[in-house]
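thread from #wetlab-drylab

HS: before we spend reagent money on co-crystallization trials with FE2/S2 (inorganic) cluster, can we at least see a predicted complex? here's what I'd submit
DV: go for it
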Amino acid sequence: MGEKIFLMTMEGSNKEIIGTKDKHILDAMLAVGIDKAPKGCHGGGCGVCKIKIIKGEVTTLTQSRKFLSVEEEKDGHVLACRAFPLSDLEFEFIGKPKCKVNEKKKYGFV
Ligand code: FES
């Protein structure tokens, strides 16, 4: 039996992103050439991969409160490297890290 495939789209891009429940959304983006967090940690530790889910369902691993506030989470924001699709998705890339200047430097934001 094949693995269930979900189709994801990002606002501003016409690329079709192929999702599976075992691959986090950031990896799925990279697989089709969307490299929005080139210096990101890919492990939930920097916040540069933040997205907002517009339509669809995701499941997430533990997300650091340092990079995702309660308000953001309630508003549908998730860290793409900690989130996995449970359905077809539409999302918007947000990507602003909430961290100190030296951390912003490290991840290429200043
Ligand atoms: S790439 Fe660092 S939190 Fe996702």
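DV: The chain has a mean pLDDT of 89.
HS: ok that's useful, forwarding to the group
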